[in-house]
Design brief:
3-stranded antiparallel sheet, 7% strand, 61% helix, two-stranded antiparallel sheet, mainly alpha
C-alpha cells in the first residue's frame, strides 16, 4: 500500500492484530470510547476507499442501530479527527466517509512475511519458510480487533482466525518436516482441543506423534477425531486424515523413519 509510507512520515502506526491501537512515535494515543474505536477500525479496513453512511452504520451497529445513530456517527468522526491529529485525513466525500494518509501497519507487515514464507516454501527452503511464518505469528497480540463488538468486525475476526490458523498449520508442518516434532506435540494437543473439528491439526498431531515414536497415540488421536466429527457433523474424516490413518496402521516406514528425531 502506498499509504504505508505516509503513515511512517507522520509517525502514526495503527495495529489490529489484537486490540486496536494507534501509536505516534511509539507512544499509544487514546482513541475514545469503544464504538468510536469500532468506527475507526471499519474505516481503516476500507484501505482508503470511501464507505457510505449506511454502510458504516450497518458495519458498526448492524440492522438495529440506535435512534440517534446519525448524531453518534458525526460525534465519533469528530472525535477521531481530534484524536488522530495531523497526518491522516478523515473526510466526507459526498458519498461516504474516507480515511486516507495511513494504513494498518501490522496487517501490511504480516502480509509481506506470509508472502515471503510461501515463496521460501515453494523454493524448497523449509527452514526459511518456518522462520518467516514464526515472525508473522509474533505480530499477533490477541484476537483480531479484540474487544470491538461491531457486527462487521465480528465477521472479520472469524476470517482472520482462519487465516492465522492456516499459517500456523503451515509453520507446524515445516517444524515437523525439519525433525522438530518432539517440541510441538503438546502445542498440537492444545490446538486440537481448542479446534476439535479442524482435521489438519489432527493430521499434524498424528504425524508428530508418529515422528516421536508414538504411533499408538496417533491412532488414539484419530479415533477421538472420528468420534467428534461423527457426533458433531454426522461425517467421517476427510481423505487426507483417512490416508494418514491407513499409513499408521500399516506402519509405513517412511512415516516412522524419523521417530528418533
Amino acid at each position: 500500500m502506498g499509504e504505508g509510507t505516509t503513515g511512517a512520515a507522520h509517525g502514526l502506526r495503527f495495529e489490529l492484530l489484537g486490540p486496536l491501537r494507534a501509536l505516534r512515535d511509539g507512544v499509544e494515543i487514546p482513541l475514545g470510547p469503544p464504538m468510536q474505536r469500532a468506527v475507526l477500525a471499519v474505516l481503516l479496513l476500507q484501505e482508503g476507499r470511501p464507505i457510505s453512511y449506511d454502510g458504516l452504520v450497518e458495519a458498526v451497529w448492524g440492522g438495529a442501530p440506535p435512534v440517534h445513530v446519525r448524531n453518534l456517527v458525526q460525534k465519533y468522526v469528530s472525535g477521531l479527527r481530534r484524536a488522530l491529529g495531523e497526518g491522516p485525513e478523515l473526510v466526507w466525500t459526498g458519498t461516504g466517509y474516507r480515511l486516507t494518509g495511513t494504513d494498518v501497519a501490522d496487517l501490511r507487515e504480516r502480509r509481506l512475511l506470509v508472502d515471503a514464507a510461501l515463496a521460501a516454501r515453494d523454493a524448497g527452503d523449509t527452514a526459511g519458510a518456518v522462520e518467516l511464518a514464526r515472525q508473522a505469528e509474533e505480530l499477533w497480540r490477541g484476537e483480531f480487533a479484540e474487544g470491538l463488538r461491531a457486527p462487521w468486525l465480528a465477521a472479520e475476526r472469524l476470517r482472520w482466525t482462519e487465516k492465522r490458523l492456516t499459517v500456523l498449520e503451515e509453520r507446524l508442518s515445516g517444524e515437523i518436516e525439519l525433525g522438530r516434532a518432539f517440541g510441538y506435540v503438546h502445542e498440537l494437543m492444545r490446538l486440537v482441543s481448542a479446534h476439535p473439528l479442524r482435521e489438519r491439526l489432527v493430521e499434524l498431531l498424528m504425524l508428530a506423534l508418529c515422528r516421536t515414536g508414538r504411533p499408538t497415540d496417533a491412532l488414539t488421536a484419530y479415533e477421538a477425531a472420528r468420534r467428534r466429527l461423527a457426533d458433531a457433523l454426522g461425517a467421517d474424516p476427510g481423505p487426507a486424515l483417512r490416508a494418514l490413518h491407513a499409513r499408521v496402521l500399516r506402519q509405513d516406514p517412511v512415516l516412522l523413519a524419523t521417530a528418533a528425531g
